[in-house]
Amino acid sequence: MPVVTISQLSKHVGQEVTLQGWLYHRRDSGKLIFLVIRDGSGLCQCVVAKGPETDAFFEECKRLGQESSLRVTGAVRADPKQVGGHELTVSGVEIIHKSENYPITNKPHGIDFLMKNRHLHFRSRRQWAILKVRATLVDEIRGYFNRNGYTLIDTPIFAPAAGEGSQTLFSVDYFGEPVYLAQTGQLYVEAGCMAFGKVYCFGPTFRAEKSKTRRHLTEFWMVEPEIAYADLNDVIGVAEDFICSIVQRVIRDNRAELEFLGRDIARLETVQKPFHRITHKQAAEILRGPKARELLDRDLTTKKARLDEVTKLIGEKETQEKGQGLKEWQRDKLVAELADLREEKDDLDTDVRNIPQHIELAANFDPDGDLGGSDETIISRLHDRPVFVTHYPKDCKAFYMKQNKDDSSRVNNVDMLAPDGYGEIIGGSQREDNLDVLLHRLHEEGLNEADYEWYLDLRRYGSVPHGGFGLGVERTLAWLCGLKHIRETIPFPRMMGKFYP
RNA sequence: UCCCCGAUAGCUCAAUGGUAGAGCGGCCGGCUGUUAACCGGUAGGUUGUAGGUUCGAGUCCUACUCGGGGAGCCA
């Protein structure tokens, strides 16, 4: 009997095939058993009817625990009502392993429990869908640069103390000497572009910042292209083209997953060239101006109204839930609705508490300061496409960024803000190619020149204008999938104080 | 580092300071088309830890531990 994957079932309608997978869900009804099988490519309901043909395994199937592994043979039937659109009428079952007491059930679980069971958690549909999109995203990242003449340069993960300066890094004992886990491959990739013209590095990167938010991981993946003979405009052009390419590829290859995740695909389809381009000065004007104020005032009013509404709904549903004579499914529905409402209420509570501060921060925004998280959200929400913000004050940026020739207080850098408040997913710049200016900036930042000798060589031997950017894979994926929390975007998230499993 | 919230059965949650409960999951039984199936039965607890207040603490107070969210910092 041919072994096929569930994703290929449409080619085998009417035929007898074998599936090999795991039991995702089981229901039985006396003389019928419904086995929903998962094989990594999809889900398929397999029906075992009591009869002479199924006698050998019927009773065993009835007791089979969730996530038991098995091979199922049967005739394929198209059935649009079923998950995946097909159903198998079972003629044979081979049980490989009986699983008992699988911890993750079809009822709601808390996030702490799910994260402790992450090694099992990503067997479930939603997590599976997210990680399928991740695989496409990663493939397109590599594909985009490979197609466009970039050479992959792998940069070291053990890095000497000299990084970008201020950030907190993880320290490792390296034969008795302290080294650090790399927080960027950027300086190395600059060396690469002088050898290969256009290069990129792609790998994990590490930050020891004590950030406990839905946007932070301590270990995350970043791709960093670097281009010789490029100015800021060239860098922005590549970033724009690259983002469009990623979005189109994911829409094309993962429409079903995005739909399952409830992502508004039409919203993603609006990601087209050209993106908005504003300078940091223009951003400051927007933040301090009436439009930002109006947006936040409107936000506060609607959120307050919704908070009252949600609070009232919770009260009503709690009363209903305590009432008598409810069917179980009615109670389940209420419990699920209550959980959602309580979560929404928590979010609204924090928003209502934070918005007045955001109003303050925006109104008093320092034109010579960095954009805060709330400022980025305001800017991105006032635009219908991704926004490039350029020319930040040099004091809040890294030493290697190219000083602007018209305004020496600014640098030729760019941050790209994703739509819908997903924040900064790209940060890049043209690099300082003048040795004297670079040395001056290095000293200004209080960095040790000796640590950077090799890097300074790049400006001594054939220095050219060049630049590049870094894109955070997990934040990008959270945006593409419309997720609230970055921890779902990576198979085994590493967060402050968490490294199991 | 700072601020807010939380911890009760394997899981999700209840319990005006007064006898710790329900649903799911497990186990046993019933049902030929179920979709988080349904119906009946059954086992399952040192209420995060340590103190304190009280006749009496899951509930109030203090500290700690762990978790969630946010600020700062960042992709």
How would you characterize this protein structure?
β14 (413-418) and β15 (423-430) form a beta hairpin. The longest helix is centred in the last third of the chain and has 36 residues, at 328-363. α4 packs across α6 (232-253) and α4 packs across α15 (473-481). The chain is of the alpha+beta class and 501 residues long. The chain has 15 helices and 16 strands. The chain has helices at 55-62, 111-116, 118-121, 125-147, 186-196, 232-253, 255-260, 265-269, 280-288, 290-322, 328-363, 373-381, 435-444, 453-460, 473-481, and strands at residues 16-29, 32-38, 43-49, 69-78, 86-97, 151-152, 158-159, 171-174, 177-181, 198-206, 219-228, 276-279, 387-390, 413-418, 423-430, 466-472. The structure holds one RNA strand of 75 nucleotides.
In short:
With 501 residues, the protein is of the alpha+beta class.
